[in-house]
Amino acid sequence: MQVVFDDSRLKPILEKVEAGIRLTYEDGIAMYRSPDILALGYMANRVRERLHGSVTYFNVNRHINPTDVCVASCRLCAFGKKAKDPKSYTMSLEQVWETAGIGWSEAVTEFHIVGGLHPELSLDWFCQMLRGLKERFPQVHLKAFTMVEVGYLAQRSKISIRETLERLKEAGVDSLPGGGAEIFCDRVRRVICDHKLTGQEWLDTARTAHELGLHSNCTMLYGHIENEEDRVDHLIKLRELQDETGGLVTFIPLAFHPDNTALSHIPKTTGFLDIKQIAISRLMLDNIPHIKAYWIMMTPSVAQIALRFGADDIDGTVVEEKIYHDAGATTSQSLRRGDLLRLIRKAGREPLERDTLYRPVTRTESTFTVLV
Ligand code: V47
Q1: pLDDT digits (tens, 9 = 90+) for 194-216
Q2: 254 CA distance to ligand 1 centroid (A)?
Q3: Which residue intervals of the chain are DSSP H helices?
């Protein structure tokens, strides 16, 4: 069958995609410059179906944010607060453990735990938190701490990143989420998150985690002051890391939400860019198994469409989301398992409940077992 694209400049890219040839930096730029999202979607869907057929993954998870106190003052963020801010909060260990049990806890297979860079909470405190969670919920996978939090804990404890990760792993961390990567380009980081670790440090921390046998996710924050070159550069750096370690499981493109941030003058991204970003991610990241359409960020309606534009995962039930809602997200804070099933089926896809490492989960009433 001959495929005809509106934008004939994408034809050489189609030939590479069909032949399984890696796309270049220039191909990435050409895709961002093309308005032909149907062509991009066609190609990304080919790759997605080659890898996963019609299967679309979701999980039953719960977000836990132990504190929003943060020493960094990232302009991109509406979540972090100073310790003296009366609106800030820090949970006690008991509160973390209690929160973990609220909302379909019997069915949850993953706790996604991230928070601010708190100047008082020690590595020991976090290790105690992890041990307490493992004691109370031994079957739940702990996907915890961005590379940024790991870096800060190492710095505060005056130990290496490697030792910090070893201690967190020993206390119960099973894998790491993908947050904090933002955009690796230093020029952009100086504006949006100048107090955070550098892009190179994010990559080095992820490399160390992978060397220790911890898988992680990865993200890219787009739709602020970055340009197309910055985005392609970011994707290629992730692809190179993955060539080295194979430790990245899922890529999640994150659209910037400007409300209540120091960058609130920046307009919100559009559905067009969100869909295009999913497709380009699938096409550029040929060695990362999964592309997630994070429904909290994209809205369930756009995330559903993304399932035909390269995404094979829609994230989970979430239960209680704070980072995007502080930044003006109008989506609900949680979806039920049944809602996710419906969204996926209505896109003509086949839902598959997974655990964090993409092993299928089967359920009987309110219990679950992981099929290895
Ligand atoms: O690290 C912060 C970003 C991330 C804003 O690994 C913002 O499975 C948009 O990383 N507008 C947290 N983005 C979310 C995240 C994530 C989400 C879902 C799944 C996984 C996973 C990871 O959100 C932060 C930062 O990069 N962020 N503020 C904002 N105003």
Answers
A1: 989 999 999 999 999 999 999 99
A2: 6
A3: 11-19, 25-33, 37-52, 93-100, 123-136, 147-157, 161-171, 186-192, 199-211, 228-245, 271-284, 295-298, 300-306, 323-326, 337-346
Strand partners, 352: 57
pTM for the full predicted model: 0.96
**Owner of token pair 């909060």:** 89
Q: Taking a C-beta distance cutoff of 8 angstroms, is the pair 30, 9 a contact?
A: yes
Neighbours of 189 (CB within 10 A): 22
d(C-alpha 107, C-alpha 36), whole Å: 41
Distance 98 CA to ligand 1 centre (A): 24
Q: Answer whether 289's CB lies under 8 Å from 358's CB.
A: yes
Give CA–CA dist 246/100, Å, rounded: 30
Chain position carrying tokens 């990245």: 248
Compute the distance from residue 321 Cα to the ligand 1 centre, in Å.
10
The residue whose CA is least distant from atom 4 of ligand 1 is 179
**HSE, side-chain direction, 13 A CA sphere, residue 230:** 18
CB-based burial label for 35 (10 Å; 0-12, 13-18, 19+): exposed
Measure the CA–CA gap between 241 and 220, rounded to whole angstroms.
14
**In the block, which residue shows the tokens 């800060």?**
152
For residue 330, give Cα distances in angstroms to 89, 114, 259, 272, 334: 22, 21, 11, 18, 12
* Residue whose C-alpha is closest to residue 180's, from 209, 205, 155: 205
Residues with CB under 6 A from ligand 1: 76-78, 146, 177-180, 182, 217, 219, 221, 252, 254, 256-257, 261, 294, 315, 323, 327
* pLDDT single digits (tens) 101-124: 987 666 899 999 999 999 999 999
